[in-house]
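note to self: dont lose this again. the chain is below, predicted strucutre after it. 1102 aa total, dont forget to put it in the shared folder this time
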Amino acid sequence: MRKIYIFIILSCLSGQPQLDRFKENSIRVYFNDIPIKHTDKIISEITSFPFIDSLYSNFGEFKISKWLSEANNFDKIGNISLSNYYDIIFMNDEVDIKKVINILKSEKTISDFEYIPKRKLHFIPNDPYFDNQWHHEKIQSVEAWNLWDIENGETPGDSTVVVAIVDTGCEWDHPDLIDNLWQNLDEDADNDGRTIEFINEKWVLDPGDINNIDEDNDGYIDNLIGWDYGGVTDKADPDNNPMSPPTEGPTGGHQHGTHIAGIISSSVNNNIGGSGIGYSVKYMPIKIQYDESSSDTTFDHNEFTDILSTGVLHAAKAGADVINLSLGGLGSSSSERALYDNIYNNYNAIVVAAAGNSGVEELQYPASYETVISVGASDPDDEKSSFSSYGSAVNILAPGSSIFSTLFNESYGRWSGTSMASPVVSASIALIWSYFPDFSKDKIKQLLLKGADDVSDKNSNFNDKIGSGRVNIYNSIGSGLLPKLIASSFSITSINDDDGILNPGEKGSLRLVVENSDGWANASQVKVTASSINPNIIFIKETANFPNIPSGGSGVNVQDKIEFETSQSMIPQEVKFKIVLEAKGNNNEDFIDSSFIYLDINYNQLGFPFYAESLIRTSPTILDLQNNSEKQIIFGSDDRKLYSLNILGEKNWSFEAQRDVRSTPAFGDIDKDNNLEIIFGSMDSTLYILNKNGSLIRKYKTNGKIISSPVLFDYDFNGKLEIAFNVFDEYLYLIDHLGNNISPFPINIGEPIFSSPAVADIDNDGLFEIIISTRDGAIYSFDTNGNLEENFPFLIDSRISTSPILFDLNNNGNKEIIFGADNKNLYIVNSNGVEVANFLVEDKIHSSPIIYDINLDGLNEIIFGTNNGELYCLNFKSDSLYVSDGWPVNFGNVSIKSSPVVHDLDGNTFPEIIFGLSNGKIYALNFNGLIYPGFPSFVSGPVESSFSIDDIDGDGDLEIASVGSSELILIDVKDKGGKGDFWSMDRGGPYRQGLISEFKLNSSDDKILPKEFNISGNYPNPFNSKTAFDINLVEDAFVKIRIYNIIGEEINVLHAGNMNKGSHNFVWNGKNQYHQNVPSGLYFLHIASDNFNFTTKMTLLK
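---
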């Protein structure tokens, strides 16, 4: 009886089918909560464990056993612990496992389950030279043989299937060939069941059958095992013994047919020689070379007949199912084509022929006739053999290099050629036909070609010229039994959605497109079951039914969708879904495909991510270039382009430079025409100036690569902006908006410059200073007249990989220079080039610092990351740096190289810090280091650039633009964001000056506090039970008074409404909005209207 088995595809979208069995009465499960006291014993009574009791009540006794007894907590792959796998084995062999699965699906303690594969020792032949035959492994002969139930007595192949070998004849009495020699029992005159006999220690034609009578009326007398058309001479002297010529020709070609016969039909498991692919398939030798041939490699017409064509027709008439022709030539003829059409159409035989050994693209015949299968040769690496001909007529490749098989005088050897590849395919066809005896020749041919392994990646120079691939019998048989279904694509729709993206906390539906490969069996009763071990996923409906999918067709679960719910508290992440495809094939055979799909559940804006053609190394910028309230995202890439995207991730335009664009653009109205210009550099040593539509205004050629951002400022106060920038190759430039050098620039610094300049009047002398840091550890300060300021350069013994920023830390009117270095120090240097302070951290600082008052205490924090994954907030006071309370925050030794930004993401006036890690994660922290809800997000590569934050779509909440590798994402923050001047983009603003107070584009004039307006500090402070404060208004206003705790949570609103001008007194009694007493600690009083914001600290002591 033929095996019944389940078909498994181990790879989700590619790979080849694996045919095997599963245990009938068992299932393997993955326990989240292991019922330890019920394991490793037979359950034969009701327990207190509901899941176990349900199984026992429905299916009787069973046992739960640990799959791997030696597995412990060390044995993990990702989140999967091998020690959590258990096998449930039922004592009843007839248990319906599908009903068991229905119970498992609803069990919360189990996150996954699967059938248990049944393993056994596969049959391996005992033939001593089997290991020398590399082609068996390639075409999976052994796996194909094991589809027959060998252990219960079945023999692979079919002795009634015959391959005719039209060739030089063969040594048919070779010990490894004799058992599979075709015997024409219609000529068995003595009725002894054979037409050969072993007499006097050798095999001979059965004397009892040689009677000069044509018993089978086929026109050939005593054709017992085949026929010899060649005979002895070039005359017409055929005989009935197709033995190879007795003497060796000049190349040993008389052994050709013997070698081919061994590839097809060497006896298997006879403890002799090698193994034939066909196993029990019979071979019929038809000899067409005469013994005295002057050449042993060609088949000449003799003077009476075309013995090749006659031999081929004889094979068909004698009943051969497959005819192997390891021969050919360049000429073609209509008569010969008609012969092969006749054999295919009228005799239902498949002819297989060698494609030729010229190594060039050409048409060889008979291989190139339409009804003949043309076979090229491949090597052990699945590359086309160097000698093999190729071309559009080749149908398939087969192993043909160094093939081990039988030779003359009971020997063996390795030969190469398409002559060896052809019998590999002939034998494969015979084996496939043995498994499917009722299939038509067209179907058999289709199975052969569709089952071939795709080897195009190894043969890119021969696309469409090597056929369907390299033969694989195992796949070919599988394709006749079962469908080959793959989940080719999927889509997720959010059910309760407001933005078209599946966010945490939303419900989703899964729609799959399932394809059935052409040439494989039709699929019926198709269904898909989805599962996930991710605890943030809960399935509402896990199974979907599909329509029947014919061979070559596809199906979609349009109506019957899988539904699931995501956890509100989950962080954005990639979630793995296990997809189990089930169907029925021919003869009701079961098909199962276990594969995986991956879903991104995140807060990305619809239309994102966007993928550039190469790495993105600039920081993105969100900006209203057109001043029409339609904001864009602008960034550059190593694909040489500067991009502008709209809010849907669609490209507005791109501008192409000559080399990589790694310079983050600056934006400003440099020519005072009321339109913004875009200024950036490229690795092509050019500074580009574009208009707001991305068209080139002008370009400026430099003497070095530009990798940092340019800076804009009005150094001569004429309303037009100048451009300062560095080139890596040691120069500092200053040019006007027309591209003219401002003397004495450019200045040769004499050392490489990685970083971007900072610009401000740092010493309050009425002239701007341009501050740069160099790779070799120097800080330079030049005024706009090109003078190096006194005491500069400031030198350290370390590389500087950050860009400097500027801020008046001492409140003396002069700005300090702030930068980090590879020697693990953050430095403060004053405008006179004197070190004011430094702070030692635990690793290099490659994250350019920023400065902002994140806790609204009136002191600005310096914020930066380190290469060991720590984010710092430092305060500066009395010429000293110290760490803010609760900082640094450690992120597990994952480098922080991105320059942070800050913005009020939730509108509570306290800004959040946004930064990225080298593992692709993006975090937002509040002022005391706690992670903001919904973070981290992630991109596909290291986050080493800065960010841009703005309300790009005008919906009131903020979006965060970030890049990693070649991917740009836009994170849609779901809270309503705050307004104000934040360090919300690289270098503090679009001019890239390296300070927070630079000019803001398209903003209205800042409203100022009324001169008479004042708010008293709260009194008393610290306080015990209550504290008071006064507000004096000079005009009516809408005022909101709120209390926040130390982690930024709003705990009470004291007032929210209109307030008349005049004096007002308020008291806070130390209670929250629920009238509950709050604990001792630090609190924040925040008072705001359209015209003012005020925040002060209050300390409650009890």
